[in-house]
Design goal:
Layout (H helix, E strand, L loop, with lengths): L4 E5 L20 E2 L2 E2 H11 L4 E6 L4 H7 L3 H9 L3 H6 L8 E6 L6 H6 L2 H4 L4 E4 L3 E4 L5 H12 L4 E7 L9 E5 L8 E8 L10 E9 L2 H7 L11 H10 L4 E5 L5 E4 L3 H13 L5 H11 L1
Helix pairs in contact: 8-9
Length: 293
């Protein structure tokens, strides 16, 4: 595998999760025992990616603090004999290097990724949205499949997709695909951001994970702002397709699921699922919920 770099956009305001996100990033909200963004980082590390760039914004400093090794805290835990908590802090030993750049003005996801140009140089790279967890039996399996497809097909862009109910397609970026070409890859014919009901091209939604070649940066430069003045990543991807460059979709398997921490309904569902799966407390919680319901 020749891809080692990943970009994690975390600059959004998280307004749909107010007031919980007034003073903390939504990426730092707990899901089970960990904040959302820790699941993302652990997924990337298990996929062989070891150079990670966070695209941050205002009030995001706690993300940097979370992944910074806290020597004083570890010493305190050692002195207190809290070995169980020391084990929980092992994420600080991940074999990754962290980098940070700030998106000072909210100009859309494509603009945020464009800030990574100097970090990426002339290499292919992964983009993993910092507010979405990919749950499954094997962490990182989806990204490894995507990278494999991306390299075998010499793609400009490879996108993770998941099936969604047709009546909910208007909430997502939706892709239209052709026939499978092997290796679990489907060529993408078109991509539409939050389509109107009458123009939905299918039921496959973009699932917050991407692999890009450096060609993306030229497409971002040519992307026109939307009505809100933002640069949409789906518009940049559409330009790659129109240019005739190979763009592929890799579906999530039945045992994989995307948890989008974008609103309270999805956040509550994610927390419940991960809490129920907890090795120590899941059994007790299941009994509690059975009685409660």
């Amino acid at each position: 595998m020749s891809i080692f770099k990943a970009v994690i956009p975390v600059a959004g305001h998280g307004t749909r999760l107010l007031p919980a996100t007034k003073s903390q990033p939504k990426e730092m909200l707990p899901v089970g025992r960990k904040p959302v963004v820790q699941y993302v980082v652990e997924e990337l590390e298990s996929s062989g990616l070891n150079q990670l760039l966070f695209v941050t914004g205002s009030k995001k400093r706690s993300i940097e603090d979370h992944f910074d090794k806290d020597v004083d805290l570890l010493e305190l835990l050692h002195k207190g004999g809290r070995q169980n908590l020391i084990e929980e802090m092992k994420y600080q030993e991940l074999n990754v290097s962290f980098y940070y750049v700030r998106q000072s003005v909210q100009r859309g996801l494509a603009d945020a990724i464009g800030l990574a140009r100097g970090f990426i140089d002339d290499e292919s790279f992964v983009v993993a949205l910092g507010d979405s967890i990919i749950g499954g039996i094997r962490s990182g399996a989806l990204l490894r499949r995507m990278i494999d497809v991306h390299e075998k097909h010499k793609a400009a862009c490879t996108i993770a997709v998941e099936k969604v109910p047709p009546e909910e397609a208007f909430r997502y970026g939706i892709v239209e695909v052709g026939e499978e070409t092997g290796h679990g890859a489907f060529p993408i014919k078109s991509v539409v951001e939050k389509p109107n009901a009458e123009e939905v091209p299918g039921d496959l939604a973009i699932a917050a994970r991407y692999v890009f070649s450096p060609a993306l940066f030229d497409a971002i430069d040519r992307t026109m702002p939307d009505k809100g003045g933002e640069l949409q990543l789906t518009d940049s991807i559409d330009l790659l397709i129109r240019q005739g460059l190979p763009v592929y979709a890799v579906p999530l398997t039945e045992k994989e699921r995307r948890y989008d921490i974008g609103n309270y309904e999805s956040y509550f569902k994610a927390f419940v699922d991960f809490a129920l799966a907890d090795e120590k407390y899941g059994h007790t919680l299941r009994h509690y919920l059975s009685r409660k319901l």
